[in-house]
Amino acid sequence: MSKRGSFIVVEGLDRSGKSTQTALLLARFEAAGIPAKLLKFPARTTPIGQMIDSYLKSHSDLDDRAIHLLFSANRWELASTIEHLLGAGTAVICDRYAFSGIAFSASKGLPYEWCRAPDVSLPAPDLALFLDITPEAAKARGGYGEERYEKEEMQRRVGEIFRRIGQEISDGGGEGEGGKWVGIDAGGEKDVVAREVWAFVEPLARGIEGPLRRLWPDKLTI
């Protein structure tokens, strides 16, 4: 049985360095001669992504439930693309994924289980890396505050939900719950963070034996 591509998700607070680290990770794959594709969520060029982009830039307003479902639909727009790439042996690196959807919406007061429900059965990553940084440190970085959610107290609540997600995945052993969850201190120099990221990714970089799993299959109701 040929190996499929590895599915790596990078999560974190706004300005935690996700874009930098996913770009460096993609370069690592390419330097090693391993086919890889970087996807960013929200994918702002799709029809749904354009609506999300307008909302995030505060050019439009939507009900909290409506925007949450749009974020989820945006991921489903690319779910078949992710599966195809992985099946062809291409590694997929995601800058944000379903875990962000839960963290940001639940931090606004929506029920945690309700927030998780639309993403049940999406492709599950093999590894989720959470770039951990304090809201204060994130605020000090360039560009902070340009988008709707970049407020210190909001980011603090988001971080708490991310840690809940990580703990639940770790307690469940990762099987069908989102792969392995790893927290990384993102407050250091970017090259130091990049080396730690690669240390966790490298064992998976050349592919995975076994089928692609699904997020939270035990929560699936028909």
Automatic annotation (TrEMBL):
Q: What Gene3D superfamilies does the database record attribute to this sequence? A: P-loop containing nucleotide triphosphate hydrolases (3.40.50.300)
Which domain of life does the protein's organism represent? Eukaryota
| Keyword Transferase assigned | yes
Q: Which InterPro entries does this chain map to? A: P-loop_NTPase, Thymidylate_kin-like_dom, Thymidylate_kin_CS, Thymidylate_kinase
Task: Give an example GO biological process.
Answer: dTTP biosynthetic process
From the UniProt record, give the pathway where this protein acts: Pyrimidine metabolism; dTTP biosynthesis
Q: What is this protein called?
A: Thymidylate kinase
- Say which species the protein is native to: Tricholomella constricta
Q: What is the lineage of its organism?
A: Eukaryota, Fungi, Dikarya, Basidiomycota, Agaricomycotina
